[in-house]
Specification:
alpha+beta, six-stranded antiparallel β-sheet
């Protein structure tokens, strides 16, 4: 169910939405969860961004950068500095939009794991939605490592049975083989046809992803991998608000602490727990 300014939202035929956007809107309308917005503009922004997340996930699937662990991460040195931890630090002489786009243009030069892939997809979709000028103003000094993000992306994670296209879901493999720890799970983008894109897994149904993970369990395990109810999404309201104000490089922004955990394929919840264990806070 959708509410705008406290009232039930009624779809107007004059809204210029493509089929993917109409599908997302219908899923939200028919859901038992109430999705509340301060304006129809904020609602339409979320629908557009969710569509661009789906498109970005499909584009990553088509361009096929390599899946790998942090120790073997690769990037285009013309745009990023590769850190010892396997992260990608934006070069100071490069525009953020150009660096994000290069991951899709020159994908053969890149290799990263699935949490990093999810963040890249969210940045790319945000760029598509708000445009180069605003993206470059708000997302400077990017650092791509696991779930580390700019605070303006506003990532949130929680348990819910209300998945929507564009959400990142987590498949957990509790009995993963210690020889292949990167199969401890997979972060996957829910697409509009209820299949999932997981970096390194291509586009598959939930049953197919579980089948792949089950082949990577420790010997003798009888505990199946499972699609959990944990979902992750950006703060659509915060990103929508960015389009209503200007920001310069002199504006103050709280920066997230980076947790270099060296554990591929973890959920955002596990990443936050790791930050807390180090005595830091996340925002």
């Amino acid at each position: 169910m959708i509410q705008v300014m406290g009232k039930s939202f009624e779809f107007q035929g004059n809204l210029e939405l493509d089929q993917v956007e109409k599908n997302i809107l219908q899923y939200m309308q028919e859901d038992h969860i109430v999705y509340s917005y301060i304006s129809s503009r904020e609602l339409l922004f979320e629908i557009k961004l969710r569509k661009n997340i789906i498109k970005s996930a499909k584009e990553m699937n088509e361009t096929k950068p390599e899946f790998t662990i942090f120790e073997q991460a690769r990037c285009n040195r013309n745009y990023w500095q590769l850190t010892k931890a396997g992260g990608f630090l934006l070069r100071p002489d490069v525009r953020p939009s150009d660096a994000i786009m290069d991951i899709f243009k020159n994908s053969s030069l890149y290799a990263f794991e699935c949490a990093t892939a999810s963040v890249i997809i969210y940045y790319y979709a945000t760029l598509k939605t708000i445009g180069h000028h605003l993206f470059n103003a708000h997302f400077q000094e990017l650092y791509l490592y696991s779930w580390h993000t700019d605070t303006d992306l506003g990532l949130v994670t929680f348990y819910s049975d209300g998945f929507l296209p564009g959400d990142v879901v987590y498949f957990d493999n509790p009995d993963y083989n210690s020889q292949t720890p990167w199969f401890r799970g997979v972060n996957a983008i829910l697409l509009d046809d209820w299949r999932y894109f997981g970096h390194g897994f291509s586009i598959k149904t939930d049953e197919e992803i579980v089948q792949v993970l089950n082949k990577k369990r420790m010997e003798g395990s009888k505990q199946s991998a499972v699609l959990t109810s944990l979902l992750t999404r950006p703060s659509f309201s915060r990103l929508s608000a960015l389009t209503n104000r200007q920001q310069t490089s002199s504006d103050f922004k709280i920066k997230q602490h980076v947790a270099h955990h060296n554990r591929s394929s973890i959920s955002l919840l596990n990443y936050y727990n790791y930050i807390i264990s180090l005595g830091y806070q996340y925002f």
